[in-house]
Amino acid sequence: MKIIGLIVAILVGALLIYAAEDFPAWSDPASPASTYLSPHFIEKTMEETSVPNIVTAVLADYRGFDTMFETTVIFSAGMAVFLLLRTFRREEPEARHYRHVLTGVTLRVKEGGELPPSDDFERIDSLWTPHDLIIKTVCRLLIPFIQLFALYVIAHGHHSPGGGFQGGVILGASIILLAISQDLRTAVKRMAEKLDALLCAVGVLIYAGTGALCLLLGLNFLDYSALASVLHVDPITARSHGILIVEIGVGIAVMATIIWIYNNVSSKGKYEQGL
Amino acid sequence: MVWPIDLAVLTLVVITSIGALMVKDLLGAAILFGAYSFMMCLLWTVMGAVDVAFTEASVGAGASTVFFVAAVFRTSRRTKD
Questions:
Q1: Does the residue B8 lie in any domain?
Q2: Of A80, A86, A163, B58, which is the most exposed, with the fewest CB atoms less than 10 Å away?
Q3: d(CA A60, CA A51)
Q4: pLDDT for the residue A92
Q5: Mean per-residue pLDDT for A204-211?
Q6: pLDDT tens for residues A87-128?
Q7: Quick one: which of A254, A194, A274, A79 has its CA closest to B62?
Q8: Dist. CA A166–CA A78, nearest whole Å
Q9: Would B79 be classed as within a structural domain?
Q10: Residue B78 DSSP code
Q11: Would an 8 Å CB–CB cutoff place A263 in contact with chain B?
Q12: Is residue A235 within 8 Å of A228, Cβ to Cβ?
């Protein structure tokens, strides 16, 4: 079976390499895409949308429909992981572990045992319990700056590389960093499961809702120049603002999905103990 | 394009992709896959597609590696075949 797979892979690879010969050369000015499509975007993007970063304009405006369904794919991935992995049967682990904060002494409380009657104990994971002050402190210090950078990436996507997807992933990664450096319960306390699921859908709703609003205002779906009357700006600036609104929607959806998937995968859908 | 850098990165892409397939330890495969993503990110930067490179760096090298590690941690570490 393995040999058959290898033969098939080699054959398909050879076919692809053979077919790649017919592609136009890299940065060939006579290739079909470069004859009319790219020059239009390069010359007209600034005057049509007032967005200096052409990639952002193409992604969220000219090809906005495509990006909307990419966001929907992300949302579906989060839903699929949730439906496959999440278990609602509450199984208490046989033993819980607590650490005395001041001394670092770890207690193992057997099933049905009494909880320590003091606030000085914190619950820890039983599988793997590293206690490193440096990691915890450094991560706690870094997370606000990571989130600030993510917001910058989302908001500055018009002028520099970046946008909703990248910014959303970085925002989600900051919460995942919290879950890895502290534990899953701390992260879930900050970003509850219901909030995750809600934000996931809200992000897609912002994107599709913006498109539907354009439709209601009398222009095509996702033609942001229709927003000019709502935002009180000229149609060209309205397209720039429309891109920003849509990018914020993408960022929210991606952030919530990343956290949601991580929580479900790392805790086997129990939300009890993380990585 | 600076061709020695390009060649070095391309060689590393091939090595890490074959390594990620061959390695028996799934955690190692996940890490190799992250390295592969990062090399692809460098390749895209060299080609001038900075937006794609940024996405690859955050999604491929960052988030998906974490997902793989979490999945390996919750299943078995060694592959059967």
A1: yes
A2: A80
A3: 11
A4: 64
A5: 92
A6: 887 666 667 777 777 777 777 777 777 766 677 777 777 666
A7: A254
A8: 17
A9: no
A10: B
A11: no
A12: yes
Phi, psi (deg, nearest 5) at residue B25: -80, 115
Residue B25 lies in a domain: yes
Number of Cβ atoms within 10 Å of the Cβ of B40: 21
Q: How far apart are CA A72 and CA A86, in angstroms?
A: 20
Q: Are B63 and A169 in contact (CB < 8 Å)?
A: yes
Name every residue whose Cβ is closer than 8 Å to that of residue A216 and which is 6 or more positions away in sequence.
Answer: none
> What pLDDT sits at residue A91?
67
Q: For residue B66, give how far its alpha carbon lies from the nearest alpha carbon of chain A (Å).
A: 8
Chain A: give the shortest CA distance to residue B21, in Å: 12
A63 touches chain B (CB under 8 A): no
H-helix or E-strand spanning residue A242 = helix A235-266
- Would an 8 Å CB–CB cutoff place A74 in contact with chain B? no
B2: confidence class by pLDDT, cuts 50, 70, 90: confident
pLDDT at A257 over 70: yes
- Give residue A32's pLDDT: 79
Domain that includes residue B10, residue range: 3-74
Rounded Cα gap, residues A6 and A25, in angstroms: 30
Q: What is the tally of structural domains in chain B?
A: 1
Residues of chain A in contact with residue B66, where contact means CB-CB under 8 angstroms, are 173, 176, 180, 262
With the C-alpha atoms ordered A183, A189, A194, A200, is the resulting torsion angle positive or negative?
Answer: negative
Any B CB within 8 A of A164 CB: no
**DSSP secondary structure code for residue A40 in this structure:** H
The residue with tokens 């206690």 is A131
Query: Does the CA dihedral A60-A61-A63-A68 come out positive or negative?
Result: positive
Q: What strand order describes the sheet that includes A96-100? A: A106-109, A96-100, A121-124
* Closest chain B C-alpha to A275 CA, distance in angstroms: 6
Sorted by sequence, the CB contacts under 8 Å of residue A99 that are 6+ apart come out as A105, A106, A107, A121, A122, A124, A129, A131
ipTM of the complex: 0.86
- DSSP classification of residue A273: -
| Higher pLDDT, residue A53 or A272 | A53
Query: Is there a domain that residue B61 lies in?
Result: yes
Helix (H, G, I), strand (E, B) or coil at B25: strand
